[in-house]
Write a structure and sequence with these properties.
five-stranded parallel β-sheet, FAD/NAD(P)-binding domain, seven-stranded mixed β-sheet, elongated, 6 helices
Length: about 300
């Protein structure tokens, strides 16, 4: 019997485990793949307090080692279900079951990818899914943003203040994002709209140096860019928990800043919850909050 089981060993989940152990609770972290989450793909983190320069891999490894040193147990098994009993809960994995008093879902979310050949290999070498994380690396350079929602528009506007040239590529001729942000983009001299078009090929040597764009009539154009920012949505890793906790229409766990879900004794932390800012610092903050709330819950049992 564990006090708390944390599903996911990304920054939110590992931080939650640290806070649970510091409260002297027996904690188990279940992880389907490898520790660290998406941050391991970031070559240089510049926006985390106190650590102006650290690789995502080193950050994740330090966090993992800190969690282990405090006595949290980490098991690499995929959680597939939650059985939410009144006092005793179970997390079902592909290999067995684990019992606990409280659960923290910290499975994160995945960036929706373009599906273009070579995309995975160029992550961190010209392809990014976070303009605020990586935009500074492209100061005075040429970049492209792909997408039609608020994130794409906001990324393009942010990059317009950093890069020399920004191409905004969208598969339709109108945007889903807010009109006010779109109007600001139209006022920028260094932003060029590429509409009714999709990215169909990536050109690279050691790094991305150009993209091929195909319009609705089949015309192919090559655009030289130093970076490509993909903003075509995210996929929360919550598919196995929808019968236990409330999800919004996009699949994110519904919870406020206290990370408390509608299910008694079940909490959420990180990029898989409904929130406006999904950054490394907000993920670790969620982990601390969720663990604190879980400890309160356990102490009242």
């Amino acid at each position: 019997m564990y006090d708390v089981i944390i599903i996911g060993a990304g920054p939110a989940g590992l931080t939650a485990a640290i806070y649970a152990r510091r409260a002297e609770k027996k904690a188990l972290v279940l992880e389907a793949k490898s520790y660290g989450g998406q941050i391991v793909n970031t070559p240089d983190i510049e926006n985390y307090p106190v650590c102006p320069h650290i690789s995502g891999f080193d950050f994740a490894t330090n966090l993992y080692e800190q969690t282990k040193a405090l006595g949290a147990e980490i098991v690499f098994e995929k959680a597939v279900d939650i059985i939410n009993g009144e006092k005793e809960k179970e997390v079902v994995t592909e290999k067995g079951k684990y019992s606990c008093k409280a659960i923290i879902i910290a499975t994160g979310s995945e960036n929706r990818k373009l599906g273009v050949e070579g995309e995975n290999e160029l992550i961190g070498r010209g392809i990014s899914y976070c303009a605020t994380c990586d935009g500074a690396f492209y100061r005075k350079k040429t970049v492209a943003v792909v997408g039609g929602g608020n994130t794409a528009l906001e990324d393009a506007l942010y990059l317009a203040d950093v890069a020399e040239k920004v191409y905004l590529i969208h598969r339709r001729d109108s945007f889903r994002g807010e009109e006010a942000t779109l109007n600001k983009l139209k006022e920028r001299d260094n932003v060029q709209f590429v509409l009714n078009s999709t990215v169909t090929a990536l050109k690279a040597e050691k790094r991305l140096n150009a993209i091929e764009v195909t319009d609705k009539d089949g015309k192919v154009t090559e655009i030289c860019v130093n970076g490509l920012f993909v903003a075509v949505g995210r996929i929360p890793e919550t598919q196995n928990f929808g019968k236990t906790v409330e999800l919004d229409e996009s699949g994110y766990v519904v919870a406020g800043e206290n990370c408390v879900t509608n299910a008694d004794g079940v909490f959420v932390a990180g990029d898989n919850r409904v929130k406006s800012v999904r950054q490394l610092v907000t993920a670790t903050a969620d982990g601390a909050v969720a663990a604190t709330e879980a400890v309160k819950y356990i102490n009242q049992l």
